[in-house]
Amino acid sequence: MRKLTAKLGYTGAGLTVFAAVLAPFLLYGVFTKGFSSLGLHVDEVYSGGPKVRTVQAAGYTIDIHRQVSPHLLQSEKPFVQLDWKPVSSLPPHVSDLVDIEGDGKPDVHVSFDVPKDPKAPLRVNVEPLNPRYEAMQNVGKDKFSALIVRVDDAILVRIPLAR
Amino acid sequence: MAKTLPAHEPRSTSRSLLLTLPIALWSLLMFSGWFRQPNRSQQIAGSITIVFMVVLFFMMMRTWSTYRWRRWFFVALGLLFPIGFIHQVMVMRGTMGIPIEEMIAGRTPFCFMPIPLLILPAAFFKTLVFPGSILPKGGMSGGGMAAMAGIWLAVTIVLGKGWCSYACFFGGIEEGMASVPAKAKLPKIDPRWRYGPWAVLLAMALLSLALFEPAYCMWLCPFKAVSEYIAARNTVGMVQNGIFIILFAGLVIALPLLTKKRTQCAFFCPFGAFQSIFNKTSVFDVKIDRTRCTPCVLCQKSCPTMSLTEESIAKGETLMSCMKCGACVDACPKDAIAWHIRGTEVAVKPERARLMFLYAAWAMAVMFGGSIIAQGLATILHVFV
User: Ranked by mean pLDDT, which of B7-16, B236-245, B372-381 comes out on top?
Assistant: First the structure.
């Protein structure tokens, strides 16, 4: 019995050394792909949720994302993310009526300046035309649920929903 | 059966070189890409790293000693990681603070620390509560969560909690600090502090599930002070950054200097506690031959994470928090404590067990830690070359 456990032990140790050699060529890739295929997703409070619709505007588009409802104890409010892109096609001042819910009626009036300097701070005003949405006046980037930021070639606005 | 050679006599140079040859070839293979880099500082950094890693392994073979040579690697890793990382962060975004737009874009670099905290939300809600990218090529530096999870799993299968001695790019700072004083000014530490990492792990895992955020990264990680921090947009952000700096100064600088222990690892790190579980699945461990043990407790005194107690020595084993650094093995004057392969008899061919462990551990160290060391060196060399 002792000889058998010793043989098993050495076999295990040998396989471990073999695994170490395989790690950069095979194991790492297998584990990485395995993790990617688990069907996990990044919390929508960070990612903004999946895009549901695209609205065509004059020379640019507005992507409308699905409403994000934060987890029970998260401090953020529910919100909707809208992406204006590409930034290069946006006018110096954007002022759009956006139909978020797709019922043919505008839900919010969003206005913001687009500075040429990509690092310049952004400010947004949101006037709700539907009571489901909250007003935002001169908001920068304080909270995940109420902000305007430039990410790559898009300007993202998150509009909080009234609870 | 005892070791084939007495531990105090150096192994012959030719035999040591022969034993080092596989690691030398492995290092050349792992760094072959560095020689094709157009940047000269990267080529030089790659070459220095290869020599560094191979010489350390040679010295381990020649002197039979593990800990004192491994420590050079580990301290270099701990010191050079922040240099390479901070430089990269500054080049890409101009600040060590993580701006909210980087979080939204999924470009927050993902280290291994939050892995245990993400498990519960992932299991219950299929959600990763971290503002990073899952894609293998996602994240700020092309290393998303999937890439780090892949590296972590591969290293963990091979080393168990050996991760904390051969792969962690944070622990080297406190190991360096702990090695500065000749004697500990605070030699007596309440052994109950050993439960600290488990308490932090439990609290942070539950809090991460409740708040849906990586609570440890948001509030308690001391290494935020030398990597990246939450951009202080408001008072809460200022408080969070204050906590990071206080914990870093206390647990990583001051207490290791006073106790000669890796205090953050031993009493606080939730990832270390989580990693201890994998010591139970690892084929390698450290055992004590009770027929040789006097016991002088030199091993207990030398352990940087207090993973040996009088009870565990009497049982002939280390606690599950042992990170296989080899300090106790080097410290034992009777060669009573040694590397061991599960299933084999204690003290039978211990050098074989040590060699098998070190080949696996050093292969991982060259692959993962070596590239981090080279990146840090390249950052420094870039100033001069």
Answer: B372-381
Strand partners for A112: A94, A124
Residue B270 has φ and ψ, to the nearest 5°, of -70, -30
Selected residue of A2, A46, A143 to mutate for chain B interface (largest B Cβ count, 10 A): A46
Does the pLDDT at position B51 exceed 60? yes
Using an 8 Å Cβ cutoff, are B132 and B110 in contact? yes
B297-325 exposure pattern, b = at least 16 Cβ within 10 A, e = fewer: ebbbebbbbbbbbeebbeebbbbbbbbbb
Domain extents in chain B? 1-95+349-385, 110-279, 283-348
How high is the ipTM of this complex?
Answer: 0.88
Interface touch B128/A42, C-beta < 8 Å = yes
Residue of A7, A23, A73 with shortest CB distance to B210: A73
- pTM, 2 dp: 0.91
Task: Give contacts of B130 with chain A, Cβ < 8 Å.
Answer: 42-43, 46
**Residue B7: is its pLDDT beyond 60?**
no
**B139 CA to chain A: closest CA distance, Å?**
12
Q: How far is A153 from chain B (nearest CA, A)?
A: 11
Nearest CA of chain A to the CA of B147: how many Å? 5
| CATH of region B283-348 | 3.30.70.20
Predicted local confidence at residue A79, as pLDDT: 96
Q: Which residue of A has its CA nearest to B124?
A: A40
Question: Is the confidence at residue B6, as pLDDT, over 50?
Answer: no
Domain ranges of chain A: 1-40, 44-160
Instruction: List pLDDT tens digits, range B258-314.
Output: 999 999 999 999 999 999 999 988 999 999 999 999 989 999 999 999 999 999 999
